[in-house]
Each structure stands twice: as C-alpha cells, then as structure tokens.
UniProtKB/TrEMBL annotation:
Keywords: Lyase, Metal-binding, Zinc. This is Uncharacterized conserved protein. The lineage of its organism: Bacteria, Pseudomonadati, Pseudomonadota, Gammaproteobacteria, Oceanospirillales. Residues 4-119 form the CENP-V/GFA domain. Belongs to the Gfa family.
Length: 133
C-alpha cells in the first residue's frame, strides 16, 4: 500500500492518504474555476484509500455549493484546498496539496465545454524556472 503525505500552505493541517488513487481529473467546470481561481481543478479520486489527519483537523472546514454536488474542504487559516469525502466511499484529494510525487498522469479533462477561453494556448506561453526578471 502506498502512503501519500500532504499539508496545507501554512502547515497547520497535515495528513496522509493510505492507498492508491483510481483516477485523476482536470475539471474545467465553472465551479472549479471559481474555487481555484484558475483554469481548472486537479483532483485525485479514490474509492478504497483512507485519509488520516496527522494534525490540524480542527482547522479543516468544508463548503458544498447549494443545489450542486460541488464540495470543497480547505484550511480555515490559509484557505488551501484539502482532501474531502463528499460522498460515502469517495475520497477526493486536490493534487497540489500532496507532498509526494503523484504516480499517475491525469486520466482526463472533464467539463471542457466550460473551459476558460485563455486555456487553449498554454503550449505557446513562454516558460521560466522562476519568477521572470
């Protein structure tokens, strides 16, 4: 069994995911664009993995958008996205909160009909290893 450590940005919340991920989706729906402030959310999904809170569980809060299945857990202090169990038997882990390499490539882009208009040109955008001068 694989263990994946993770934390929020401020380090208050620390956790481990024990088990393997089933899928890795890049979601382009408008809800995910709003709650990430970016082009898409990058979430790992697992049906059998277990979430173990190591510290700061009391700093974790959740929000479900009324009338939808859109759910997000995050740190009350720094706002970082954190793992959640929006449905019984389903663990959703934001890829960016893990402190370990993710062993799988994204499974698919989903909800591409609502993709941000500027999201198609990433290959043409210059790349820098750090902040450009």
């Amino acid at each position: 069994m694989t263990n994946y450590p993770g934390a929020c940005l401020c380090g208050t919340v620390r956790f481990e995911v024990h088990g393997d991920f089933d899928s890795f989706y890049l979601c382009h729906c408008q809800h995910c664009q709003k709650d990430t402030g970016s082009a898409h959310a990058a979430n790992l999904f697992a049906k059998s993995a277990r979430l173990i809170w190591l510290s700061g569980e009391d700093a974790v809060t959740s929000f479900t958008l009324p009338g939808t299945r859109h759910h997000k857990s995050f740190c009350k202090i720094c706002g970082s996205a954190l793992p959640s169990t929006p449905l019984p038997g389903l663990l959703v882990v934001p890829a960016g909160c893990l402190d370990a390499k993710i062993p799988l490539m994204p499974t698919a882009h989903i909800f591409t009909a609502s993709k941000a208009s500027w999201d198609d040109t990433f290959e043409e955008v210059p790349r820098f290893e750090g902040l450009p001068e």
